[in-house]
Prior knowledge:
Elements: H1 2-9, E1 12-15, H2 22-37, E2 42-45, H3 51-74, E3 83-86, E4 94-97, H4 102-119, H5 138-156, E5 158-159, E6 165-166
Parallel strand pairs: 1-2
Antiparallel strand pairs: 3-4, 5-6
Helix pairs in contact: 2-3, 3-4
Amino acid sequence: GIALMRIMTSDLVLDEIDSYEPDALISILRLVSISAMFGRNVIASSATLSEPCAKGLSIAWEFGLKLRDSIYKARGRQASAGETILFDHISEPTVIPTGTDFSSTYSSHLNKMLELIISSGGGCKKAEIIPIPQSDNQDEWHASIQMACLEMHERHKQTMDSGIEMSVGLL
C-alpha cells in the first residue's frame, strides 16, 4: 500500500541505471512503467548509458504511457502524452516525442555528442607510462608518482566556476 502510494505521487530518479545487475534492471524497468502509468516523471542519469539500456527504458516508459492511455480512454478522457529528453553537458537537448523511433534518435544524439567531443579535442587523452626509480625505496616511488600526477593535473585540469581546478584520472 504505502510503497504504491509513493510511486503514485513521486517522480523517479535513477542514477547509473546501466550498472544494475540484469535481474535488478528488470525490476527497475517495471518501476519505470508504473511511474509512467501514474503520469510521473522519470529521470535516468548516467555518464555511460548504453543503447540497449536506453532502449529498455524507452520501451518501459512507453508501455506505462499506453497503460495510462487505456485507463483514461475507458473513462472517456484523454491522457497527456509524454516525451523523452536527452541532455548532456556538450550538445543541445534532444526531444523525442512518445511513439517516434527512439533508437535512431538516441544513436543520432550520441553521434552528435561524439563529434563535438572529438572536434573540441577533448575526450582523447592518451595513457602514459611513467618511469619509476629502480630502487627498493618506497619514498622514491611515491615521490615519482606524485610528481607525475601533478604534471598530468597541470596538463588536463579544468577550472570550475568556483575557481577550483579539477582533473580526473586513473592511476
